[in-house]
Amino acid sequence: MLELKPMLSALWRNKISALLIALQLALTLAIISNIVVIVQDRIEKIERPTGIAVEEIIAINFMAIPQDYDMIGAVSADLELLRELPHVKDATVTNQVPISGSGSAGTFYTQPNQEIGGTNSNRYNTEPHFIDTLGLNLVAGRNFTDAEMQFFDPNELKEMPVAVITRQFAEKLYPNQDPIGKPLYDGNSSHPIEIIGVVERHLGAWVSWPNAGNVAFFPAVRNTQDKNYLVRTEPGMRDKVLKTLVEKLSERDPQRVIKTRVLSEYVARSYVRDNLMVKVLTIVAAMLSFIVALGIVGLTIFWINQRAKQIGVRRALGATRANISRYFLLENSLIAGTGITIGSAAALIANHYMVRDYSQPSLTLVPLAICALLVLLVSFTAALTPAIRAANISPATATRSV
Fold first, then answer.
1. What family does this belong to (predicted)?
2. Cβ atoms < 10 Å from Cβ of 208
3. Residue 332, number of CB atoms within 10 A of its CB
4. Domain membership of residue 171 as a residue range
5. In the prediction, which pLDDT does 396 show?
6. CB 133 within 8 A of CB 53
7. What predicted TM-score, i.e. pTM, was given to this entire model?
8. What is residue 1's predicted lDDT score, i.e. its pLDDT?
9. Count of domains forming the chain
10. What is the pLDDT at residue 2?
11. Which residues pair with 163 in a beta bridge?
12. In this structure, which long-range contacts are made by residues 73-77, counting pairs with CB atoms below 8 Å and at least 24 apart in sequence?
């Protein structure tokens, strides 16, 4: 306590420098704390379970060359061929590849002819092997049957008899209710689509979509010029099977252009922006911490050089090295405490506007407190070496200019 008055007096004489460091610490805390919640949110997003056996699945897209191509017949023959290949667990056809960034969506209702209050959902046209091929977990109800399949031309409209949906979508449609057997209405239609099954999880086509996880599957194949197959292999055999797929499909029917890609590539591409943001923000946080540490080191050394004679006098009067080091560390702590107080308020205010205007995650007190401790630790560590240097100043320094 006896050191507090001369310490405050010294800080007042150098108030501009002390204030600049405090503001630098405040700005660093405000930025880093918001970076932490954004990075944490992105990491949680990237690590979400997909509900799909991603590492075992190959996606195949082909475009038929003839205009009068019999897509329905080709799909049947291709799937039979794919399922008989060695190390293949199952194969299916779908209108879009999951987690690829490409898909279709619609608004669904629980009442006929409803126009407001609907729930948006990704939608897939597929067939009974879809669930097993993707490795989806059917938690309620049943799968499609072959008798429920719908085959139709591009301009033909058909009403779906049944649907399998994700549990997330089911909870939004019928909260706290058993959805099996309940109706689903597409748009403002009056035709009921019976919910026959619920799968545990499927992210859908767009991982960044606010409604990711709302997915509905319908038993349908449309006779278009292009089609997507999904092939699930035995664990560890994906790359080996991939080498033979195009060859076998081309041998069966050469009148098309075939492209293949493993599903994990689609997943990686879907999260490339999130991964980039995590890396960039982490680098920014590290650079800010380094810059503020350099500022503290420079300011502390400057003050020590200015007060070398006074330090020598204190040493001559009996002050120990520990007393000198403690003095400068406490002085630094006062500056850091001021900066952290200002920075905490600034962080919460900035986060409020980020949540309101940009839908960013909220900053809670726990990550803010952790970031404040980290900033304090950086400040303490940066001041430690200059403080030890000050403690080593000889008492003889007090007499050199006399």
1. Belongs to the ABC-4 integral membrane protein family.
2. 11
3. 24
4. 66-254
5. 64
6. no
7. 0.80
8. 45
9. 2
10. 47
11. 195
12. 74/227, 74/253, 74/256, 75/221, 75/227, 77/252, 77/253
